[in-house]
Structure formats: C-alpha cells, structure tokens
Amino acid sequence: MSNDRTREISVVVVGGSYAGAAAAKQLAGLSKKYPGLKVTLVDKRTHYFHAVGFPKALVDASYAEKAFLPFENFFAESSGHEFVNEGLAAVVDEHHIELGDGRRVYYDYLVLATGGQAPGPIGVAGRTKDEGVAEIRALREGLEGASSVLVVGGGPVGVEVAGFVAAAYPAKDVTLVHSRDRLLPEQFRIGISNGAVEKLSSLGVKVVLSEKVEIPADFAFASNVGPRVLRGVHSGKEYASDVQILAVGFRVDAEYLAPLEAAVGAPLRTEGAGAIRVRPTLQIDADALPHIFVPGDANSLPGSTKFGFKAEMQGGTAAANIRRLIESGFDAAFKARPDAPAPAVGAWTDYVDLILVPIGPSLGVAQALKVALGGSALGNLLVSQLKAKDFMLGLRRGYYPRPKKAKRD
Ligand SMILES: Cc1cc2nc3c(=O)[nH]c(=O)nc-3n(C[C@H](O)[C@H](O)[C@H](O)COP(=O)(O)OP(=O)(O)OC[C@H]3O[C@@H](n4cnc5c(N)ncnc54)[C@H](O)[C@@H]3O)c2cc1C
What UniProt keywords are attached to this protein's entry (predicted)? Predict the structure, then answer.
C-alpha cells in the first residue's frame, strides 16, 4: 500500500460533541505528519450544548448561558481544517455525503458521531445558542410558576433533574416516577439506588418505583409546561402536575444512512432503536466500509456505554484506528482498488466503572471501581466537589475556544 505522506486525505467528522470533538481534534493533530490531510467537522448547531449540565442549567440561568460553547473556533484559522455549520442530509455512497444545503463533500474516512436524541426540552433542539437558551428558559419559567412537577424516568438524568428542581424550589411538590423497582442503571450496585431514594426523599421528592406512566402522543416540548394528568399503565393511578419533565425516550435518528444502505444492499441500523450497527473496532458493520466509524451514542453498543466520557473515549478509538489506516496507506490503496483489504485496527473496551450523580448542589451518590457510595456523606462530598459545581463544563472548554476578539457568543 502507498504511504506517500503528502497525498490529499479528506476526513469528515459529523457531530462535534463528546465523540466527534475528540475524534476531530486528534485527527487534526495528524496534519503535521500528513500535510495533505484535511479534517472537516460538520455540525447542524452553531454551538456545542453541554447536555451533562442540563439539570443545573434548568435552575440556574447564568449557567445555562455558559453551557453553550461556540464551534466557530474549533480549529485554528491557519490550520487548514474546517468547521461546517450544516446538517448531514445523507451518506450518499462510500465516498460522499450530502449536506442539508445540497453540497456534496468527498471523504476518504468518515466519522459519524451524531449521537442520539432525548425528548425536548432535556434534549435541547435549538440550532443556535439563543434558541437553546430560550428552550431551557421556557421550562424554567414554567417551573417557577408551578406548584407541582412530575419527572418521568429514574435513570441518572431523571434523578439529577428531580434533585436539582427540589433543591432549587423547596416549596414545590416534586414526584419522580420510575418503571423499574430501583433507580439508576442496573449495572451499578443497589447501594447507590437506595442512597438516591434516601437523598431525594430528604429534599422532599416523592419517589414512585415500579410505575410506568402513559405518555400522551402529543407530548411535544411545549406541552411539558401546563397542567396534565398522566396515568399509571398498570396501576391506573393518576399523577396530576403543572410541569412534566420526561427523562425517558432516548432514540437515534440516523435516517441519513438510508442511501448508503441502498448502495451496499444491507441494513446498517438496528431494528426499532435505529442505532448504527458497529463492530468492536467502532467500524460500521459492513465489510465494504472499513473506513466509516461510529463512536458515541449513535452506535449499537449497549445502553451501559451511553455516557459522555465513554463517547469521548470512543472518539479517541475511532481517531486512533483512522490513524492506523492512514499510516498503512489504506485510503490510497482503496482509491486504486476498492476491494483492497483493510489493515488490522484495534477494539474499544469498556473498562471504566464510574457514575457520579448529583442530587441537588450538595448531595449525591457515586460508584467507582465497584465501590458504591450511596447513603454515605463521602458520596455527597465526592459528587458535590467533582461534579455538581459546574457539571464538568470546564473540561469541555478546551475543545471550543472562544472567538479571539472578546466577542460575546
Ligand atoms: C440531560 C442529560 C444529562 C446527561 N448527563 C450525563 C452525565 O452526567 N455524565 C455522562 O457521562 N453522560 C451524561 N449524559 C449522556 C451524554 O450527554 C451522552 O452520552 C453524550 O452526549 C454522547 O455524546 P455523542 O458525541 O455521542 O453525541 P451527542 O452529544 O448527542 O452529540 C451529537 C452531535 O451531533 C450533532 N448532530 C446530530 N445529528 C446531526 C446531523 N444530521 N447533522 C449534523 N450534525 C448532527 C448534534 O448537533 C450534536 O452536536 C447526559 C445526557 C443528557 C441528555
């Protein structure tokens, strides 16, 4: 295989959040060795939104403003790499994507890091910072005028949201309904689930387990604010509230793959969930497409991997595998002979066992290295110090530098 270091190489990364930002930054670093390498980062938004900090953004207007970081300066101006603020409309074939404005972009390597969608307003849908801030503000204003709040879903997001709402508005009646018989993901120890119930209760949250409520079909963003009665599917019990916050219903929307599926004659997404099928190397699951990688929430790895820090690690794995392919001259060989065999690349391994769940600014539960800190004061200390203050927003700032001329974004 040819390993001419001056050859033109186009790497396109779609999605600039945890997975995509890590991949794009690492790949851009390769251009010192490969001056012809160009990374194009495509994102439909003007700003990265720090979803991890949503529970704090909901109750703290100044934090909500800070949680949007601009893509504009993702690459240094002189780097030769480019950020394109446009949606991915289609992966047309094994070398082209089409953007929302109709533009076609050629790629030698493609990283699809488009994540998943939580229901609004938890999954902020706004394309610009102003739109995103307005979505969160609308919910906050709804909360301020409400006397009762219903949070549906007792995973980490639901627990954190219920805790922050209860801590910020102690006079409001907050209920958390969860379909399972314990809170938080099942792969973690029962001690943190019990600790979460205890700490939420101490803030006045009513926790209802083993209860699935019916979600009305018209449950759009706007209808989250306003009086509603949701009914328990099995119990028939009615839950009346002034504001409802859904922390369930995560899905992947990768309809842009339909043309590529037609071109290769095989489905590339899982049935139902719509996640993009991947191999342990994070390559898309098709022999003919060894140069397409899918790190992060968009892929078909289990639910236990759907965390920001794991998406970031996967972005690193995708970049490292692309580096291996580039170094072996794979793209040049593939152009000359599309059936050229791809060299071996490495698998991503999920070895990190960590969860930090703040329940309001000063309480929380945690698990690291199989040690669960549920009911303990140490859990409160660890979570409030490591996470609750800024929800690790500081760790993201390095990816998205502010524009130089002190321009407000
Ligand atoms: C409210 C909330 C709280 C969370 N809290 C935590 C936490 O405390 N700790 C933790 O580890 N994880 C947390 N998570 C999970 C974490 O946010 C995700 O696992 C992580 O964001 C996944 O990263 P990603 O890069 O795969 O995708 P995403 O973060 O979903 O990013 C996808 C990117 O792709 C872009 N995009 C999507 N489609 C297109 C398209 N067609 N064209 C162009 N661009 C597109 C989007 O604009 C976005 O920038 C939380 C999630 C939510 C919703």
Answer: FAD, Flavoprotein, Oxidoreductase
In this predicted model, what pLDDT tens digit does every residue of 350-400 receive, in sequence order?
Answer: 988 889 999 999 999 999 878 888 888 888 988 998 888 899 999 999 999
Whether residue 88 has its Cβ less than 6 Å from ligand 1: yes
* Distance spanning both ends of the chain, measured CA to CA: 46
Give the C-alpha separation, 196 to 185, whole Å.
Answer: 12
Ligand 1 pocket test: which of 12, 41, 43, 48 has the largest number of ligand atoms within 8 Å of its C-beta?
43
Sign of the four-CA dihedral 93, 94, 98, 103: negative
Task: Please report the domains of the chain, with CATH numbers, ordered by start residue.
Answer: 9-44+86-117+251-336 (3.50.50.60), 129-249+353-397 (3.50.50.60)
In the prediction, which pLDDT does 341 show?
Answer: 86
Structure tokens at 31: 């251009």
Tell me the C-alpha distance between 297 and 280, whole Å: 14
Q: Is the CB of 161 under 6 A from ligand 1?
A: no
> Tokens 């980062």 appear where?
41
